[in-house]
Design brief:
This is DUF3349 domain-containing protein. By secondary structure, the chain is mostly helical. It has helices at 5-17, 27-33, 40-53, 60-71, 77-89.
Length: 105
């Protein structure tokens, strides 16, 4: 079974850095480093797709679903926030009544 390119790159990187296997003490730091983060280009691509749909206001669910479609991975909250910030800065409304920091209605 072939791995997605993202995972194949990670495995190649691990094999190069740890040719004799990953020591147990390095597992947690490595997992922290390998947490998926969107590139700036991916953030722009996702924001562009959301705006092109014309369904406003956009919410965190819309952002998360679009991130999953583009990256084929479950989004992390930091990625959702980066897309949200990008949209807000461009003047596109982002509404999410479930956010902890959302003002009360």
């Amino acid at each position: 079974m072939s791995l997605p390119p993202f995972l194949a790159n990670i495995i190649g990187w691990l094999r190069a850095g740890y040719p004799h296997g990953v020591p147990a003490s390095d597992y947690i730091p490595l997992l922290a480093l390998l947490k998926r983060r969107l590139s700036d280009d991916e953030v722009r691509q996702i924001a562009t797709e959301l705006v092109a749909r014309g369904e406003l206001p956009i919410d965190s669910t819309d952002i998360g679903v679009t991130i999953t479609k583009v990256t084929d991975e479950v989004p992390v909250e930091a990625d959702v926030e980066r897309v949200r910030k990008n949209l807000n800065e461009a003047g596109w409304p982002v509404a999410d009544p479930f956010r902890r920091d959302a003002p009360p209605e």
